[in-house]
TrEMBL record:
Record Pfam families: FCD, GntR
Annotated GO MF terms: DNA binding; DNA-binding transcription factor activity
Keywords of this entry: DNA-binding, Transcription, Transcription regulation
InterPro entries membership: GntR_C (IPR011711), TF_FadR/GntR_C (IPR008920), Tscrpt_reg_HTH_GntR (IPR000524), WH-like_DNA-bd_sf (IPR036388), WH_DNA-bd_sf (IPR036390)
PROSITE patterns noted in UniProt: HTH_GNTR
Top-rank taxon: Bacteria
Protein known as: GntR family transcriptional regulator
TM spans (from-to): none
Keyword check for Transcription regulation: yes
SUPFAM superfamilies: GntR ligand-binding domain-like, Winged helix' DNA-binding domain
Residue ranges of domain HTH gntR-type in the record: 5-72
Origin organism lineage: Bacteria, Bacillati, Actinomycetota, Actinomycetes, Mycobacteriales
Amino acid sequence: MSKTYSSAERAYREIKERILTGTLPGGELISEGEIATDLGTSRTPVREAFLRLETEGWMRLYPKRGALVVPISSHEAEHVAHARYVVETATVRALTGDDRTALATTLRDSLTRQRELLSELTESDPQVLARFATEDTDFHRTYVVAAGNPLLTGFYDSLRERQRRMNSAALHRAPAHVARIVEQHAQLADLIAAGDTQAFDTALAEHLAGVHQLELKGLR
C-alpha cells in the first residue's frame, strides 16, 4: 500500500467518524485546508477522502468553496426509523423462550454500561456522547442478532452508520434526554424478557419517535 493511499484512507476514516459522531455536524461547510491542518497531513489525501465521502453521499463538494456535510433529512430519518422498527419487531417476535433467557443477561450488561456512561456525562461531553451513541446502537443490534436470521441481521447492519449518526445527532441536540433513553431501553429489555411482543412494538415506536423527534405515522 502506497504512503499516499494510506494517508487518504486514514483521512477518510477520520473525517467519516467525525461525521458519524456529530463532531462535523450536518450543514457545516469545511475546507480541505482546515481539515488537512487538523489532521497534520497534506491536502491531497483530504481531497481524495472528500471525493470518496461525496460518492457515498456524506458530503457535497463545491469548487473553491469547500465541502458541505450533508444534513440528515427528515425523510432519511423517517426511512431509517421505519426500517429499524420493521426489523426489530420482527426479530423480537421470532425469539424463543431460551433465546430470551440468554439475551436477558447480555441486555442487562449493556444497560449497566449505559448507566456508567450516564454517570460520566457532564456538560455534554462529546466523547461520552459518542460512546453512548455506539452503545445505544449495539443494544438494539443485540436482540436483532439473537433471532438468528442472518439476512435480517445483514440488512440491519447496513443501517448502522446512519443509525449511529442519527443517535449522535439526537444526543447532541438533547443530552439531558440520555437518562430517559436508558429508562426506555430498560423497559424494552423487560418486555423482551417477558415475551410481550405487542407491548414491545408500542414501546419501540414511542422510543424511536421520541429520540429522533419523528411522528412515524403508521407505527403502533
